[in-house]
Amino acid sequence: MPTSSELAVVATNLGKRYRLGQSIRHDAARDWLADSAEQLLRRRLGARPRSAPLELWALRGVEFELERGDVVGVIGRNGAGKSTLLKILTRVTRPTIGSLRGWGRVGSLLELGTGFHPELTGRENVFLSGAVLGMRRAEIVRKFDRIVEFSGLEHMLDTPVKRYSSGMYVRLGFSVAAHLEPDILVLDEVLAVGDAPFQGRCLKLVRHLSQEGTTVLLVSHNLGTVVSFCRSGLLLEEGTLAAQGAVEDVVRTYVRSLETAAGQTLGERRDRSGEGRVSVTSARVLGTEGRGSLETGEPARFDFEVTRCLPKLQCSFTVYDMTGAAVTYFDSGETSPLDVPFEPETGSRPGTVSCELDELLLLPGRYRLNVALYLEGQLQDHVEAAAFFSVAPGALRGRPVSSAPGNAGIQIPHLWKFEHLPARQRSAGIR
């Protein structure tokens, strides 16, 4: 059991309650005065008193201990309490009951542009964000060149950040937070925006910080990222701690819970995000001639029923294996002349979006898929673990495919050749 000097974060009977429909908080005297004045005015006007607000426990009875230098993935479905946990740790909000203690300097990047002012340049925002995170000006000046070099934004440094892409925001914000040299670094879904080379640099830096004793907490829906970044994991379900331990074990527990959730009617699930102008009501994976069974090398079709057939509707989905690693990705926005879009006059009717494969290249195993719908670049619906399916052994262009070696997920059509080395090459000693 670790001693107190080896601990970085300790949660004890942690709970956070929100009162839905109640916006007044008595965190300061002015809040109490404003609320009292409103109640007095309502009584004098004869207005009906406000109904008692509904209570929502975002966290309840959460207890855990994290050691110094650990890299912890915090996972769970939407609304499980992940972001609330990190906001309590970074003192953005206070717990209702219990405590969450962290020892040392805390650096955080909870959302895009934390501590940034859109009208200021990247250079100016490095100093502003650093100051917000608790760095002294001399410290920022000393680390400035390293921060900029890591972000890779030297060419945009004197441009207002309002002209930055979301990826640029993350790169600069992460660079500032990481170079704070924190004892605890908290990251909430920010690395999903960065490109692959930047994520690689982040992974290298996170490992370095961990070796130096920094404790890292990462919230992400990308289980592959969690497995790559983290050594241990916390699984939250409906505000309670459902599992804690080695990250691979926690991810497997989470995937099993997702498969249980996938048994619900997709259209009735509430663990989804997006604007909701159109949503997915059903997801099916079909094999040859519409059968429910699939084999490697055989044709396959992914069907998604949607609430409205809109002409500019874009559908994308990602297939994951049971370790949480992304295996392949499909996006109707990457068009082909053979695609068949919705007709303009069908805008108000339900319909089906289908993705057809001549050959299923997935190796035998169990898989899940996440699906998302977009309109003009805006996310309308995203459902995690919309469907699970199994792929049985088969044959790919005549070659038997029976199992997945190692962590591989895809078989690529190929041809082997065995040839004798020509005599002149043998005599010359060419290998």
Can you tell me the CATH architecture of the largest domain? 3-Layer(aba) Sandwich
Biggest sheet strand order reads 5-6-7-3-8-9
Percentage of residues in strands: 25-35%
Poorly predicted regions are: none
Described by strand count, sense and barrel closure, the largest sheet is: 6 strands, mixed
Features:
431 residues, alpha/beta, Rossmann fold, Coagulation Factor XIII, Chain A, domain 1, 2 domains, six-stranded mixed beta sheet, 25% helix, globular
Q: Please, could you describe this protein's structure?
A:
With 431 residues, this protein is an alpha/beta fold. It has two domains: 4-14 and 61-258, P-loop containing nucleotide triphosphate hydrolases (Rossmann fold); 266-401, Coagulation Factor XIII, Chain A, domain 1, CATH 2.70.50.60. Helix content is 25%, strand content 32%. The protein contains nine helices and 20 strands. The protein has helices at residues 29-44, 82-89, 122-132, 137-151, 166-178, 196-211, 223-229, 247-261, 423-427, and strands at 7-20, 54-67, 71-75, 97-102, 106-109, 184-188, 215-219, 232-237, 240-246, 272-273, 280-286, 294-295, 300-306, 313-321, 326-331, 351-357, 365-375, 378-392, 394-396, 399-401. Strands 5-6-7-3-8-9 form a six-stranded mixed β-sheet, sandwiched between helices. A hairpin with a 2-residue loop joins β19 (394-396) and β20. α3 crosses α4 (137-151) and α4 (137-151) packs across α5. The relative contact order is 0.11. The mean pLDDT is 84.
